[in-house]
Amino acid sequence: MVVINRGAHAEPGTSLEFKTGNWRSSECPVHVHAKAPCHAACPAGEDQQAWFAWLQEGHVEEAWRELVSANPLPSVTGRVCPHPCETACNRTSIDTPLAIHNVERWLGDEAVAKGWAYPVEAPAADAPCVAIVGSGPGGLSAAYHCVRNGLRAEIFEALPEAGGLLRSAIPPTRLPRTALDAEINRLLALPGITLNLRCRLGRDVMLDELRHSHAAVILSPGCGLSKEWNIDGAVPTDLHEGLHLLREFMDHGEFPEAKRVAVHGGGNTAIDLCRLMKRYGVDDVTLITASALPGPDTDPSDLINVVPRELEEALEEGIEIIEHATVKRLIMKGSRMTGVEIVSLKKLPGTDGRMHRVQFEGTERVVSVDMVIPCIGERVNPDGMHNLLNRWHYLDAQDRWSRTPQENVHAIGDARGDRGTVAEAIGDGRLAVEAIAARLQGRPDPVEDARPEMPASGLNPVYFGRISRIAVPKLPVAERTFEAEIEGDIGRMAALREATRCLSCGNCLACDNCWVMCPDNAVIKTAELASDGSHYVFDLDFCKGCGICAKECPTGFIQMAEDTWHEGD
Fold first, then answer.
1. pTM recorded for the entire structure
2. Which residues of 362-465 form beta strands (DSSP E)?
3. Which parts of the sequence belong to the 4Fe-4S ferredoxin-type domain (predicted)?
4. 79 Cβ partners below 8 Å, 6+ apart?
5. What residues does 156 pair with on adjacent strands?
6. pLDDT for 525-540, tens place per residue?
7. Of the N and C termini of the chain, which has fewer Cβ atoms inside 10 Å?
8. How far is the C-alpha of 202 from the C-alpha of 557, rounded, in Å?
């Protein structure tokens, strides 16, 4: 009962009698730790919001440890990944996305320089051993995650060095060999990992043999063979396929003589080849691609599949790019190339309901060249794996865990046919090992993270000021050589400053807004400080469901949900 004294003031504590009871609105506040869109977009499975949170507090090594819980090669991915996380970043709704790949690269390099140990323990000497075919990014990731999950890993690599296409097909201007070697050597030095070099599947070791001698097999051979290419059955007599030509240059430093070159394709191999040939001294280099260049009206599904900064640098270096076009006819004088006839393409719906690129008659034109180089993709070398290839010449991976029809055999990375980036291969390696570990321990498959994604509309941008993105040092065009890395290191101060731009989407900032602004004092703050927001407690006896706490939550961590509370709960 409320007691009023002669001064018409309620006695202390009497306000506690005024409970909202069952007349609160139909909604009440709840804590929802949603996925940040950068995390949802990352093929490697990194939780960027989590490691940026450590950086915001100045804990650099802890940030790196959080990062490598998913991706053991941040020095590599920070340099070569197309960073879809930045495209997804909610910061774009305020100014510009976070420079996630630059900070990731810095963290990876810092770990190497400081000698930080990977957060893993040595597996038992008799732990189950997983056979891994290929030491590219997928195979290396799988080996690392085997150790993280208490398993041993044995890698079988056909080449004399580990690294796969990271070493043989990515120029040092994008991925310096010192950085690559440092990261790979640290990983391979982990206890429980064995590397067998010059050991080719189908020649030195057989798949059935591996299946019987190991607890599981992970196939990560990459795609080492170029797809067949011709124009109405015609091919130049001196045909040079893109990936093969790029590898030859990486080994010997020379290209065939040419003055005007057309590269037919639209991936990173095509862009790398164009830039290297221009730097080598070829007068005119033209990229002919069926895809579109970035623009305000570009359909994301039609966008050229290259790292955005690499495309920007190619244009700086004088590479001509003809979009929405393909080669229709080869023009030859005897056995010598003199040009290609190209035709424009447009996307139209087909009878199957899908969009298809069709040639646009009347747009034919001739480009004078003395060499044409196809870069239309690669396929798997079938040696030792013939019975696992599908009709498209890729390994038949059937689920999220990359299982193949053969029991206890997983296929990851480019060899699946639906992958194309280093980050995707790294993510595949992690997921395959998690499924293998679960099976060996008698557990069901790991549960997929089904948390909702936090959109920009779920944030309150009033609490975030505009902060310019860090400037990244870059070599001027005149100083770009075959060896010097073009994009530079941002350094510690810039990395920590960039971390302050993170919006912490879907995560509690401990800003006290909910506690301060609740008109009914229905938010209670405990004495303990918890990083997950649990130190803010909603007292539903007094909450009337006004939603102010959710509205004023900067990160969307508080949301209004259907009220299922009853007095006495």
1. 0.92
2. 365-367, 371-375, 378-379, 409-411
3. 534-563
4. 101, 105, 174, 175, 179, 485, 487
5. 133, 196
6. 887 776 677 789 998 8
7. N
8. 53
